[in-house]
Amino acid sequence: MIVCGDGLHNFVDGLAIGASFTTNLLSGFSTSIAIACEEFPHELGDFAVLLKSGLTVKQAMGFNFLSSLSCYIGLIVGIIVGRLTEAEPYIFALAAGMFLYIALVDMLPEIANVTSKSKFRLGSEMGIFCFRMLAY
């Protein structure tokens, strides 16, 4: 399940990168750097989950590699579809929605568990949540 979800996520990342490069070169590089900074901890976390699920290191790396290949498919599709000027806003909206979804799925369960904790801690965790949302 995590490999399929990661593959879909990487496909959307590739779409965003491809569409950004069709907009202009600077936009493409900045989007690529932002996604690379997001992908490194994300793939490391997926690798840890795969190891915890009982896979060997070699198997976990193989599944991680296979799910990462969908980024290149997304890149090609993003370049082709990004040339259609009407499609660019929709591709970027899809990518932004994916980033927001991942941030909310990661953070909301943690925030829901703090209802019995002090208000200061709740405020601190909400602040961290807001900063993480801004990072995406």
UniProtKB/TrEMBL annotation:
Q: Where in the cell is it found?
A: Membrane
**Keyword set, alphabetical order:** Membrane, Transmembrane, Transmembrane helix
One Pfam match, given by its short name, reads: Zip
Cross-referenced InterPro entries, in alphabetical order? ZIP, ZIP_Transporter
Q: Can you tell me where the transmembrane regions are?
A: 62-84, 90-109
**Oxidoreductase listed as a keyword:** no
How does the protein associate with the membrane? Multi-pass membrane protein
* Protein family membership: Belongs to the ZIP transporter (TC 2.A.5) family.
Name listed for the protein in its UniProt record: Uncharacterized protein
The species this protein was found in: Strongylocentrotus purpuratus
